[in-house]
């Protein structure tokens, strides 16, 4: 119905893309979403690797309801609550050894903001207000969030470009991305030059100015589930320790079982100083994020001023904390990390034949975290022109076949480069994995026909 102002009622939402048609989702259960026409979609990317325990889990709804009845909100500057204490204990149990203090926020960007400010706070507390340690080194192929601090750490150009004049000038180094090695080298003869680049950057900036290095264990949205070589994280750990630089692992996407380990740094036995996490911790049932820090760092603050001058109204709210407790209980009881590893192996096995497609350049990832990179010419790895928006096109084709995937672009040269991320809920079964891969293959085949590289049936 048009309203008096002439607008249609219910049409006031400011969407991210104001031109795009958004299906109206009315229900969700397990790995499936349903729109108002009755069409069913596999949530093949768990939103954005969020809904790790699947949709519509009754016990989570009951836990949220019970907490809302008990106390929905208290402010973090005055009170603590039982679910908050319990969740911190659970997160610290899942974290690498020594990471025992958990600072809660409402999402991934906020978690990263907290890590950036905490590293500065730590050095002030330890060395006094005259410390010069303030700089954060990040990576070009990285995404850490859209708030201005987290975006300053983010290297991914399509997300940065418009706002570049407003960002903090944090230095960036190349990520470990063998398919498009920044140095044009090949592993292992490369000597893992991308890790050595961190040492060079620390020396160039002056170690006395560098507070921290931040990286995603596997690059997520910025280039599509890109795993590093095995030497990368241990070497990065060594370099950070050598120069008194704190190592921050951004596990917002990879945390809580996504890659088949509770935290992805565990694959390499590396213990970072700080972890940023979010998404899977509450699996989308309520906004939640956290910074997890090593006890020794926390101790410096405790023995010093005792105050971390940073906070958000909803940080540590009991409703989200109760959600997190229920989600992580479910995650542990159903051994979802093991399922991620097992179903991930199956997903990569079933998807392997897709690598024969003339437009698939690379399939990579770990656990239930898979990236499919699309290229115009396989031999040279030449990407499609950015204007074709091939990742978005593949997403639309997959949606027509009832599969939602998560597209990304710009990782080849800052503009061109297309991939889709696949990451179903960690509850996915073998039959559902097979169905997902069939839908992906069908979407890809349709795209090949449209591009004229495959004959129509
Ligand atoms: C690795 C990483 N860090 C940070 C963020 C930002 O999280 P949020 O969107 O919850 O602010 C994301 C979001 O996708 C992410 O993937």
Describe, in short, the structure shown.
This protein is 35% helix and 15% strand.
CATH architecture of the largest domain: 3-Layer(aba) Sandwich
The 3D shape can be described as globular
Oligomer: single chain
Which ligands accompany this protein? pyridoxal-5'-phosphate
Described by strand count, sense and barrel closure, the largest sheet is: 7 strands, mixed
CATH fold assignment of the largest domain: Aspartate Aminotransferase, domain 2
Rounded to the nearest angstrom, the radius of gyration is: 22 Å
Number of strands: 15
Helix content: 25-40%
The number of helical runs is 13
Q: How far from one another are the termini?
A: 43 Å
Strand/helix succession: EEEHHHEHEHHEHEHEEEHHHEEHEEEH
CATH superfamily of the largest domain: Type I PLP-dependent aspartate aminotransferase-like (Major domain)
β-sheet strand percentage = 15-25%
Mean pLDDT: 96
Q: For this structure, what is the CATH class of the largest domain?
A: Alpha Beta
How would you characterize this protein structure?
- With 457 residues, the chain is an alpha/beta fold.
- It folds into two domains: 25-53 and 335-451, Aspartate Aminotransferase, domain 1, CATH 3.90.1150.10; 58-331, Aspartate Aminotransferase, domain 2, CATH 3.40.640.
- The chain has 13 helices and 15 strands.
- The strands form three sheets. Strands 4-10-9-8-7-5-6 form a seven-stranded mixed β-sheet, sandwiched between helices. A four-stranded mixed β-sheet has the order 1-2-3-13. Strands 11-12-15-14 form a four-stranded antiparallel β-sheet.
- The longest helix has 22 residues, at 430-451.
- It starts with 24 loop residues before the first strand and ends in a 6-residue tail after the last helix.
- 51% of the residues are buried.
- The model is unreliable at 1-7 (pLDDT under 50).
- The site of pyridoxal-5'-phosphate has 15 residues, from helix 4.
